[in-house]
Structures are given as C-alpha cells and as structure tokens.
Design goal:
single chain, 205 residues, alpha+beta, 2 domains, 6-stranded antiparallel beta sheet, 5 helices
Length: 205
C-alpha cells in the first residue's frame, strides 16, 4: 500500500514539474514574441523621419500632409541575442492627410529597472501613433483632427504593464505613452523622431 502511495506521489510530482516546465516555456515564448515587436535603444537614436508640408487653409479648416518613414531598427529580441545591423535603412514612406495646426508622433516606452540594465536589458519602445490637434483648445474641441495607428497600435501586454506598473516594479521602472508634438509651419519642414532613455523627442533635422 505504501509503495503504491509513493508511486502515485512520484507521478504527481513529475506531472507538476512537467506542467511548470511547459508553463515556463510558453511564458518565455510569449514574452519573446512580444519583445520582437519592440525596438531597443541605449542613447539618443533616430527612429523615424517626418516630412510635414506647409500649413494650408481649406475653407474653415487647417490642413497639412505628412510623409512618414520609420528606421528599420533591430528588434529588442534580436538586440538581446547580439544581432547587429549597422546600416540605416527606412521602411516604405507613408503619406497621411491631417487636419489641425500641430502634429504629434510617438508611442510606448518601457524602461526596465536598473538591475536589468546591468544585465544588458535596455529601454524598449514602439512607435504606435501619428495624430494632429490644435494649439487653441476651443478649435481642438470644435474642429476635426486626425489620428492614425502605426505598427499595430498599443498591444494588450503593454496595457497590462502600464496598469500594473507598481506591482511589476521589480522588472519595470516605468511604462508610458509619449507623443511629442510640433507646430505646423508656413513652409515644409523635416523632423526626426528620436528616442532617448527619457522617451521620445521630435526635432527639426
């Protein structure tokens, strides 16, 4: 009887260990797949170019056009495993029609805690949104604006990280959305979207 009980206990332990291993493997695969959609950086780095046309008036609406090109950077997963890509390459340009007098471009930034940084894990980001608005609040409330989703938008896992940032402080220093903006000028302007350890920066090139 005792031998049978011991065998049953041993089998249960083995089953539990196999289940734990499977769950760990699936979790690692899921996190790796998620990291593949994000990029990695260690300093101020150009991640996209934005060509903004001059402001134009269309009836009672302010309008302008934007051509967006994203730098083909390493994914965070490739960077962690040492993949290198020194050539600056861009994705195919996309042109968007906008309404307003300010353009904003940005997305999600996940800054990992200092301990993980020591082990080589760096801040990661994903450009997810291009939008327009008005400097004047009354205009922003009364007139239409434009908004476009980039790179599949904000994913569910980032939303979970941002909602549970405090509970995950042992991994994440901060998870935030960051959308810097620039006023539309009376002449065409080329801007660069840069990413730093503090977030996104939209600056004239």
């Amino acid at each position: 009887m005792e031998k049978k009980t011991a065998k049953i206990i041993l089998r249960l332990v083995l089953i539990i260990m196999i289940l734990i291993f499977c769950i760990a493997a699936l979790s690692a695969f899921f996190v790796a797949a998620w990291l593949q959609t994000y990029k990695v950086f260690t300093q101020k780095t150009l991640v996209a170019e934005l060509d903004v046309t001059a402001q134009r008036q269309e009836g009672d609406k302010k309008a302008f056009s934007v051509t967006y090109k994203e730098v083909k950077a390493r994914s965070s997963l490739a960077a962690i495993f040492g993949s290198t890509n020194s050539d600056l390459q861009f994705s195919d340009p996309q042109t968007f029609e906008m309404q307003g007098d300010e353009v904003r471009l940005g997305g999600q930034v996940v800054k990992l805690n200092d301990l993980l940084n020591l082990f080589g894990f760096k801040t990661i980001y994903k450009v997810t949104r291009l939008e327009s608005t008005y400097l004047d609040v009354a205009e922003a409330k009364a007139k239409p604006t434009s908004i476009y989703e980039l790179n599949g938008g904000v994913d569910a896992l980032f939303k979970f990280y941002q909602t549970n940032e405090g509970a995950l402080s042992f991994i994440i220093d901060t998870a935030m959305g960051d959308y810097p903006g620039k006023n539309v000028q009376n002449q065409p302007v080329k801007y660069g979207l840069y990413v730093t350890e503090e977030g996104f920066l939209l600056d004239r090139m």
